[in-house]
Automatic annotation (TrEMBL):
Domain of life, per lineage: Archaea
Protein known as: Uncharacterized protein
Species: Halobellus salinus
Length: 79
């Protein structure tokens, strides 16, 4: 056995530990993404149900960033 063998073993152990850490992190992330996708799906279902309930033909979405600058004379609430 040469002196470099312990270094090789340490590197392999280090790589294995890094792999385990990354694997666990990816597993946690995938669970969060899955939960987020379920949440978005539930919201989409609610929007469609609301539209059907009120006999809507269209569901429209808009980018609302800088809306006050784009519509300076609009009231805060149009209801």
């Amino acid at each position: 056995m040469t002196r470099s063998t312990p270094n090789v073993a340490r590197r392999q152990i280090h790589r294995l530990n890094v792999y385990k850490l990354l694997s666990n992190a990816l597993l946690r992330l995938s669970k969060r993404v899955s939960n987020s996708e379920q949440y978005v799906h539930a919201i989409a279902n609610e929007l469609v149900s609301e539209a059907v309930e009120h006999d809507c033909d269209v569901i429209a979405f808009a980018v609302l960033s800088d809306i006050r600058e784009r519509l300076p004379h609009a009231r805060r609430r149009h209801v």
